[in-house]
Amino acid sequence: MLGQLNLWGKNKVEVAIDRLQSFEPKEGYYLAFSGGKDSQCIYHLAKMAGVKFDAHYRITSVDPPELVRFIKTQYPDVALDYPRDSDGNVITMWNLIPKQTIPPTRKARYCCDKLKESGGEGRLTVTGVRWAESPARKKNQGEVTIMRTGRVKGVKESPDFTRTDRGGVVLANDNTESRRLMEQCVIKGKVTLNPIIDWEDDDVWEFLNDWAKVPHCSLYDEGWRRLGCLGCPLSRDVAMKREFARYPKYKELYIRAFERMIKNHPGEIRMANGEIATNGGEMFAEWQKWCTFGG
Fold this sequence. Notes:
CATH architecture of the largest domain: 3-Layer(aba) Sandwich
Number of strands: 9
Radius of gyration: 21 Å
Shape: elongated
Low-confidence stretches: 136-161, 169-179
Strand content: 5-15%
CATH topology of the largest domain: Rossmann fold
Mean pLDDT: 83
Order of helices and strands: HEHEHEHHEHEEEEEHHHH
Helix content: 25-40%
Number of helices: 10
Largest sheet: 7 strands, mixed
Strand order of the largest sheet: 3-2-1-4-9-8-5
CATH class of the largest domain: Alpha Beta
């Protein structure tokens, strides 16, 4: 529960606020906002903490319409950013698939890299990443992940936190060993702060409903557990079929993208049964199977 106190007499909300205040850069945070419950938490926590930040929503072209409307209505101050290539052209799922010449799958998640994870380069980025979202994440990561040793740009030495021998950063008032609150990606020049990394789902809903007292996207009330890209290869088969039944136009857009992908592919595309893919509909059906079985 959020109100439960730790060894330092602070609840989870106060600890999250401490984390945000301890690492605040002079130029302010780049807050990655998706419109989902977790990003709502970090947005309102940043407000409560009184830290400087600018929030950004990446327009992926495949988010549910209800989610996009919710963001525009409830969070008008959030910047709407279009992902762009090196030439400045807008990237969408529909022009990305043909260029990649393979569908996005669990193992080939180029869509996340191009559509969602860019932005905030050179900034200290705040996200709503949590352990509870993924068993693998909880097992393999703690509270601060630093992908190289050395100083973290924009973070000054402070008695409020200590550094590990691997270059990690752990706040003094966090009482769980091997936690990780910050992630640094050397390739992208991005440092990421995850202030609610140790929150459970119940903590998130308690904060939104009882502490911040703000509305959430209506899709949650319809039983959706996660909000994000329609047709995401990480979704369960049942969820993917439900999404395409509700939003048939998105299914059509995927099939058209697969049509162009087949034309652009340097060689033949053979499906699991050995037949050569000749149209987007066949490729779409095959792709759904790949997603289901972790292809």
